[in-house]
Design a protein that fits this description.
about 450 residues; alpha/beta; 11-stranded parallel beta sheet; 9-stranded parallel beta sheet; 9 helices
């Protein structure tokens, strides 16, 4: 068994943000969540997250995870941060893994390699990578597998800065850890207590310190907005590849954004610029058109979403289609074969099979019966200024263009509503409702107005 400590107390000033660095989102979830989930994948006996800057927000983001939260009240460096976890690991003699909250690409397999080295007898194991440009990282001095030292860039000579093997910030330690931490000194340019100083301390205690070389992309840390975007790009590329291997067609895949919570079936087609977020589920053979945005939305098999449509919390049934430029708000349910066209907005409404709403309509808090036709400009006036009310439209009903249905109101099966009508009372089954002023033509009026001008 082992314990795991994640250091997440840094301020992240280079992000230029009021949001704590480790809470910046990557594909819809906080950066820190990746480090926590990687740690949990190795089933630690205890997982401690050390928080500091913006600690209340960070602790709140950890509510759903089985972690203990330790506080670093003053930001005095990484060794000082790790020391704050000691009360939570009293009496624990097994190996301790230590990672950073801002390295979200580390894989459990890589960390397991560090653990193995300590289990095999090393006192300390650290992850290293070779970078083409190692600027900003501590440089590793070593002989064979054994590490001789780590020099922070701000304390390094030009010769040491030329070294490209760097400390990736992930470690495994034996039971000497907290004794050794108390020996770390802050005699450096920043007056901070550096975690890599444990290399020399462990060696002074006669313990072996070894390096485990990893893949550079895995060790990418996030200190700036540019680095955040780069890491998100790595995550996105991996997600796209995974779904394409499973049979999803992506046209111009580098333009498609999707989150790890999204699920796609084989033979789904995604056109350029698609955005898929949250708990979106897309069924076999469904198609999402260019620049559509789907969040927490279900597309059943062979459903189609056309260009520039926005759907949030909606369900689009088998063979149904929406768009282009449709808006489906939470609670919009389009059953099999429904057609919702351009500039139609649907909110908290059930459209039964075969309903057609071709263009320029608002359906809110409504239930529309099978096969009904909704004309251009139709509005369900569902809000009286205080409460929302329901509109019921029967099977096969025909609602003429520019009609307003003032809820609560019911239109019966097979009924018709004349264009331009304002309906405030129930329309019986198979009736025609006309509620508008009678047309009156005044001969010559327009010509007289022009002559007066």
């Amino acid at each position: 068994m082992h314990a795991h400590v994640i250091l997440a107390a840094g301020q992240g000033t280079r992000m230029k943000s009021r949001l704590p660095k480790v809470l910046h989102p990557l594909l819809g979830k906080p950066m820190l969540a990746y480090a926590v989930e990687t740690a949990l994948a190795l089933s630690p006996e205890k997982l401690v997250v050390v928080v500091g800057h913006g600690g209340e927000e960070v602790a709140a983001a950890l509510r759903d995870y089985p972690v203990a939260v330790a506080w670093q009240k003053e930001q005095l460096g990484t060794a000082h941060a790790l020391l704050q976890a000691e009360p939570f690991l009293q009496g624990f003699s097994g190996p301790v893994l230590v990672t950073q909250g801002d390295t979200p690409l580390l894989r459990p397999e890589t960390l397991k390699g560090l653990l193995v080295k300590v289990q095999e007898g090393a006192g300390m194991a650290l992850l290293t990578v070779e970078l083409p440009d190692p600027t900003g990282y501590g440089r590793i001095l070593r002989q064979g597998e054994e590490v001789l030292g780590n020099v922070e860039e701000k304390d390094a000579s030009p010769e040491i800065r030329a070294i490209r093997e760097v400390n990736a910030g992930a470690y495994a330690f034996d039971g000497l850890l907290f004794t050794a931490l108390k020996e770390v000194r802050n005699e450096n340019a920043a007056r901070e207590y550096y975690l890599p100083d444990l290399i020399a301390i462990y060696r002074a205690h006669g313990r072996k310190v070894v390096a485990v070389k990893g893949v550079a992309d895995e060790a990418l840390g996030v200190n700036t907005r540019e680095e955040l975007a780069r890491v998100e790009g790595v995550l996105l590329s991996a997600l796209r590849r995974e779904w394409m291997r499973k049979g999803v067609r992506m046209i111009l895949p580098e333009s498609i954004y999707l989150e790890p919570t999204v699920e796609l079936a084989p033979d789904v087609t995604l056109w350029p610029g698609v955005v898929l977020k949250g708990q979106t589920r897309i069924g076999e053979g469904a198609e999402v058109g260019p620049y559509a945005v789907l969040e927490d939305t279900v597309l059943e098999p062979r459903a189609r979403v056309l260009a520039h449509t926005v759907a949030q919390g909606a369900v689009i049934g088998r063979g149904a289609d929406a768009g282009p430029f449709a808006r489906l708000r939470p609670g919009a349910v389009l059953r099999e074969g429904v057609h919702v066209g351009n500039f139609v907005e649907v909110k908290n409404s059930l459209l039964h099979p075969g309903v057609k709403a071709g263009h320029l309509a608002y359906l809110g808090d409504a239930e529309v019966g099978e096969g009904a036709n909704i004309g251009a400009g139709v509005i369900t006036a569902n809000y009286d200024g205080k409460r929302k009310h329901k509109t019921l439209i029967g099977k096969g009903a025909f609602i003429g263009s520019n009609a307003v249905l003032v809820a609560p109101v019911k239109v019966g099966d097979g009924a018709m509503v004349g264009a331009g009508s304002v309906i405030t009372h129930e329309v019986p089954e198979d009736a025609l409702a006309v509620a508008r002023g009678r047309q009156r033509n005044i001969e010559g009026y327009a010509r007289r107005k022009r002559e007066e001008g």
